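Aim 2 progress update. The chain analyzed this quarter is reproduced below.
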Amino acid sequence: MRDRTGITPGPLGQLLRGLEEKGWVTSERAPIEGPGRPAQIYRIVSPDAYTVSVDHSARAIRVLRRELTGSTAVKLEQPVAEDASAAERDRLILSMIDEAVGDVPEEKIWGAGLAVSGALDDDGVLVTSVATPQLEGTRPADVLTGRFECPVMVIGDGRAALSAENVLGVGRTASDMMLLALSRRPYIGTVLDRFPRIGAHHLAGDVSRMSLGNDLLDVSGWAGDSGEDFPDVAAAFRAVAAGDKAARRELTRRLEALADHIAVAISVVDPELVAIGGAGRLAADQVIEILTPLLEKRLVALPRLEAAHLDQFGVALGVTEMTRYRIFATLASPDGGLAEFSRDEFIARSGGDVQVQ
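Predicted structure tokens:
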């Protein structure tokens, strides 16, 4: 620490004692092995604490309980009918949360968050949603505020997936990256200088109303070798990955039509990496094979094209990482200084409002 910070041992000892008083580190004396005062050993505190994260998607609910250190304790996934009402979905979420939390007492849950597909306003109301229109006009995070006493966060699912890939996935080695999520609700997220771009209206990367979104959302006319249309975009990509020639021809046609859109987005950001995510991750190798020559014709320099690393729990992991970031940023910041490392202090500093990302 002296070598890294340049702080001399005297002031550094005072700093460590201050961290210990506020619960960030613990100390103990090293075994006596010779003359002189024994050394003091400091260890970072890892509290017995958890976060709960929910991915509320159109066809599945996913719940994670993770330790504050980042290790997963419980991982759950349940299908949900696409036309299920908001009340039916909330009941399923609550039953899954009860299972995930188990007998863990409330005071050990420091934060909770929920990701939803669509555009959120500053009050956490879902304004529009292509995937779950029945939730429009509701506050999806209310299911968490009614269940937990800790601070709650609500996040767009594209932003959550981007954050997860940035911290835990393919983006760990890239300062500037884009996530091209090819799904029923497409998303082009950006990370600049290691930080995901949110946007003034929490809508950076949302292209669901543009032709890029409409072309991919409409699976009518996207048939495989059997001649039958695929039920959804994910099924189409799975068929492409399995070698279905008709499905690949249709994917090629659609990517050719979208190439200008994608090239413009890449040109504006000029990232070093573009990750292929969403349902497109299921056939990422084929998507990259088709996209590469299309982009080479349109761009002076081509970024790396790679498959996103995280599976269907990527969105929930992103919620977890953003919740953890909120906890540590609230308790230790340049403006607020270093607070006591405790759940009560986090709650006191967070206020009662749902944070919208």
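The domain at 169-307 is CATH 3.30.420.40 (Nucleotidyltransferase; domain 5). The chain has a mean pLDDT of 90. These observations will guide the mutagenesis experiments scheduled for the next reporting period.
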